[in-house]
Amino acid sequence: ESLRLGDFQSTSHIVSVEGTTRWMTAVEEATDGAVTFQHFPSQQAAKSKAQLDAVNNGILDVALLGVLYHAEALPLNSVVGLPGFYGSASQGTAALQTMLKEGPLRDELLAAGVTPIFGFVLPPYQVLAKKRLGAPADWAALDIRTSGSTQAMTARSMGAVGISIPGPEVYTAVERGRLDAVLFPLASVPGYKLNEVVSHISTNGSFGGYSFVMAVRTDLFNGLPADVQAKMIELGDETATHVAKAQDDSVEGLLAEWKSQGIETYDLSNDELAALRDSMKAVGEDWQTRIGGEGSHAVLNRYRSLTSN
Amino acid sequence: MNVIEKILRKVEDTLHLAGCLGLVGVAVLINADILLRLIANRPVQIQFELTELYLMPALATLSLSRVFRDGGHLALDIGPETLPGIFGLVVEKARLLLPAAFFACVTYMSAKFAWGAFAHNEIEYGVIDWPLGWAYAVAPLGCGVLVLRLIHDVFRSSEPDLTR
Amino acid sequence: MLTFIALLALLALFMVFRMPIAFAMGLVGFFGLALQLGWRPAFAVLERAFFDSSSSFILVAIPLFILMAELLTSGDVTRRAIFACQSWIGHVKGGLAMATVAASVILAALVGSSTASTAAMAASAYPEMRNHNYADRLAAAVVSVGGTLAVVVPPSIVLVVYGVLTETSIGKLFIAGIVPGLLTATGLAVVIKFIAMRTDQAPKGDPFDLGKAARASRHIIPMALLMVAVIGAIYGGIASPSEAAALGVMGSLLIILAQRTISFSAFNRSVSGAIRATVMIVTIVTCSAIFANYLVFTRITHSLLEFTSTTELPREAILIFMVLILLVMGMFMDQLAILSLSMPLAFPTAMALGYDPIWFGIVVTKTVEIGLLTPPLGLNAYVASAQTGVPLRTIFKGVVPFLLMEVLVLVLLLCFPQITLWLPSLMLK
Ligand code: NA
Ligand code: NA
């Protein structure tokens, strides 16, 4: 069976190379061609916000969902976007995978008509700026590029202003001083050449997360032979671990490279981290109020315990 | 001019006016944003989301029909303008009916989509909570009136036009 | 593949029978999707098609730059700038025509749309040249050719649409357009000088009068200030290109209010005209997205990319082939229609070949700009003809020497990417 797989990342992105593409190839090989994929990267098949709908409508069969794009249909899953939780892609991915196996996050996806195969996260967002930003006091009144409401709240919780600027315009905005700082996943920094315009990059902050879930339309998935289903999931688990580690390694490499270019890559001190976490607690509380219900409380607690070791 | 034409024009002009006000609104908002940012270091925070979610879709789709009425939708003029006989008549009708069918589909689907957003109280979290239904509703409105215009023109062109 | 060709033929048929291009692309794309994926998915594609293509902040540059142009033209600002240029170099042989080119550059730096620019030049520069016994064919041709500069010199609607369709930085595209625009203007001046020396189509104008020239020049000051404000806001980091367009609107409004050259009804007409152009453009963008979606699911893009990555042909050959196709399309189609039809295929191909997206954008823009001047559909020649009353045939004849220069400039841009990329690399490093 040939499945149409939608993806909003480009094929050169590490998430595609070490994650999506790798998984597709592994599944095609393991199932001896019983399942093959037609890959539609870079939002070719559907815009990033429309990927979930596209799977439900039969435009696609499988999609790598950027979960935060679907906060409306998947509110509980957006917990991963909160700042101050996981410290590496591997840690975050392990937590997410556990929560996708059973519990409210999985149920929410099933209710949306799709079955999660595996999920993984980007390394935590760091702050890039032209000066060192540590404790919340350093952030006061700065213009920070954020994407999405959770990050805007994160900026606000530290007394800064969250500003939405389209990705391609961020470079110029930073260079020309329109923005004082950017919250960004480090793996995406080279794609936008942001390392050319900033002088300071934090290494151990946790200014928000981002999760991907590979999701198959449920009625289609249930129609697949049991061994194929099992293979897809098993290889998915492997891929999740692999792509998380690959990203963490790549971040190490990037940081070393930037350091050699004269950029100050800095660790936040324990005091700074504690102060930041304290400020950003408001973001989690706001999230819980917005989502409401017992569910959000339980999800937040479980997520906290899974990411705190 | 018959009554239907009159009503249709009224609707088109009203939507067009709304679109024009949307554009003026965008210009004012962005300027206010820039000025306040420069002077008071306080951006108009709602500007970006208001523009992107509501004003742009509104000013880009509400006037669809009015622009068609004015002949503003780009078409090639390498072929003959009118063709003689029954074939010419078929071409003339099909040129209106096929797009009418297409835009009827667009209207139906996008209206259903907007309706769903209203029914589920869908919200885009941002500086404030934006109700998405209103953002989605302008497209079916603009497309729907265009369908009426296209269908109306199919029937009008078969009668002799006494106003010319 | 057979279905694909049949649908392309259907698309051509619709367009020949004068169905609006956007409607034809939407219809065929929708029908193609239904054949490819089934009716349910095809219908689903429609549900957010218009919202997705219009709900974009970057797109606000389009109505705002058009509004700015409309305001400047209806407020008599552009006509005054043309006179100022003419008062400085009108006295030499061919000087009025060169002044028209110079004024076109200034206008181009304020106006994003070439029809607006051509119309303004035709209304003001053409009569002046005629009064000084310029040949119809030269005067009308210069007006049409000068108008095309608006497309390359920033701000430019074509560049914005290219940026939106291909997700390329509009700020960088704008900077990249500056040198090619000035190069084109220089080329046009050379052609005029040549014609003025060889023929009697371009006699001398009024003798030079320093006082008169200086007095006329004060009309350039507000435009120059506006230009500095808009471009300065972009490169000074105060505003993104989209936001700068809003500054431009406000600036134009202030100028014409100060000059007392605007009425409420003229303001309304300007806003209405900007909306009209925007609706047309967004409809094209939306419907071409539906068509592009169909292309994606046919896997034609995919096969083409595989072909380009495995073919033995040098990448230059593929590029030249693409440029030639664009030139031929330019003979029959409007620039935006060409962009929306071709970019879904041409852009990924060019990227797969390793070309720079900014440079490719300028090359494409330059190519479709040439299309504005070629028969049978040469939009600028149409506008000039409508405004001046000079027959189309005469204008097209007069345009020929300029066209040769335009092609020469295009070849230069193709051979020396640094002409395009030097300035952006300087300003953005
Ligand atoms: Na321009
Ligand atoms: Na042409």
Automatic annotation (TrEMBL), chain B:
Quaternary structure (record): The complex comprises the extracytoplasmic solute receptor protein and the two transmembrane proteins.
Topology relative to the membrane: Multi-pass membrane protein
Stated name of the protein: TRAP transporter small permease protein
UniProtKB keywords: Cell inner membrane, Cell membrane, Membrane, Transmembrane, Transmembrane helix, Transport
Task of the protein: Part of the tripartite ATP-independent periplasmic (TRAP) transport system.
One family name in Pfam for this protein: DctQ
UniProt xrefs under InterPro entries: DctQ
Domain Tripartite ATP-independent periplasmic transporters DctQ component: 27-157
Organism listed in the record: Actibacterium pelagium
TrEMBL record, chain C:
Lineage top rank: taxon: Bacteria
Keywords from the UniProt entry: Cell inner membrane, Cell membrane, Membrane, Transmembrane, Transmembrane helix, Transport
GO molecular function: transmembrane transporter activity
Record-annotated membrane-spanning stretches: 50-69, 138-162, 174-196, 220-238, 244-262, 274-297, 317-341, 402-423
Assigned GO CC terms: plasma membrane
One Pfam family in the UniProt entry: DctM
Function: Part of the tripartite ATP-independent periplasmic (TRAP) transport system.
Family: Belongs to the TRAP transporter large permease family.
Assembly description: The complex comprises the extracytoplasmic solute receptor protein and the two transmembrane proteins.
Name of the protein in question: TRAP transporter large permease protein
